[in-house]
Amino acid sequence: MIRPKALLSWSSGKDAAWALHVLRQRAEVDVVGLLTTTNAAFDRVAMHGVRESLLETQAEAAGLPLRTVPLPWPCPNEAYEALMAQACAQAVSEGIEVMAFGDLFLEEVRDYRIQKLAGTGLRPLFPIWGLGTAALAQDMVAAGLRATLTCVDPRTLDASFAGRDFDAPLLADLPASVDPCGERGEFHTFAWDGPMFRHPVLIRRGEVVERDGFVFADLVPA
Questions:
Q1: Measuring CA to CA, how many Å separate 23 from each of 59, 211, 221?
Q2: What pairing do the DSSP bridges indicate for beta strands 146-152 and 214-221?
Q3: CATH architecture under which domain 5-125 falls
Q4: Among positive and negative, which fits the CA dihedral 185, 156, 147, 144?
């Protein structure tokens, strides 16, 4: 049986990495690439703030080709949607049938993705949707997924968490008001090791800066 080809929406974070792990275990689709939006002005992953050089190394470690969608800065929603529509059309022209996402429980985000893929020829897939985030975070750590917090929203989580590893001590330190997977945007991560990678992505920590109301911990290739 020929499995449908799929792209995975790739933020560089732990949820996307775990979605890749789950998709490979289920073997319902053939993941043939990663799709990432980047900030063209800064050569970094949009929102996560990860350098494109690390993103490329990460994709190589995952054993998958990387497709980037450079976004202008600032980026109006109309521009974002137009560029994503182009990326979807290109994927369909190559025989790709599925776009997978690592969303967990935000209904409005899921509905938006379904709406925007309607009529494109791509079927949305949410392999880790609905999993309890407290148990999921523990499962990620137990399975050997390693990630570092690259962006923190200081309105919901203390800035000191920026640059910390996503591990058992961090989970124990998170306030009860913060989702263990940061699904509401409390924090974002860069995944650098785990069962979805062929080898670790070697990193070292750079400076921590506040920009546009968020705290970013820079990661540098080691």
A1: 16, 35, 28
A2: antiparallel
A3: 3-Layer(aba) Sandwich (3.40)
A4: negative
Q: For the whole model, what pTM was predicted?
A: 0.97
Contact status, residue 221 vs residue 54, Cβ threshold 8 Å: yes
Q: What is the C-alpha to C-alpha distance for residues 171 and 165, in angstroms, rounded to an integer?
A: 10
State the amino acid at position 38 in one-letter form. T
**What is d(CA 59, CA 10) in angstroms, rounded to the nearest whole number?**
9
For the stretch 42-84, pLDDT in tens is 899 988 899 999 999 999 999 999 999 999 998 999 999 999 9
Interstrand relation of 187-193 and 146-152 (parallel, antiparallel or unpaired): antiparallel
**Strand, helix or coil at 3?**
coil
| Torsion sign (Cα): 67, 183, 124, 23 | positive
User: Domain limits of the chain?
Assistant: 5-125, 144-221
The answer to whether the CB of 211 falls within 8 A of the CB of 47 is no
